[in-house]
Amino acid sequence: MVDVGAKPETERVAVAAARIEMQAATLALIRTQLDGRESALPKGDVVGVARLAGIMAAKRTPDLIPLCHPLPLSGIDVAIEPVDGPPSLTIEATVRTTARTGVEMEALTAVSVAALTVYDMCKAVDREMTVRDVRLLRKSGGASGDFQAADLPAKEI
Questions:
Q1: Full-model pTM
Q2: Which 3 state secondary structure label does DSSP give 96?
Q3: Is 120 one of the annotated active-site residues of the chain?
Q4: Pairing state of beta strands 10-21 and 130-140?
């Protein structure tokens, strides 16, 4: 494990994203749930459960990723939005802490587990789903400074 004891505590924020592509019919079933109507998906509220799974995963990152520091997370937000073309859900996680090391791994773990949860909850109707584009979008804080993926428009965290 990297020794971060000499580093100052600073506010750190990381934003990660993932996408899970699916059949149009699967997305329609999820949209039915989002509209508050009963859906044929047997495992229940896909977006709500996936969001909660992402939050829980961010908190458990040091248990899942070897040598990852346990951090006092001060905020975790997981947003999941449907997209029509191609049929998919976009997942974005923002994780915050004041600590000696960053929260990139927590944000990446959150979106990964949220996407896997969508797969698990929808696999009965669509085994062709594909998790894509898991990546860090931006981060701030720490000695290495700010980072933003080159293909994104400028945005403050």
A1: 0.93
A2: strand
A3: yes
A4: antiparallel
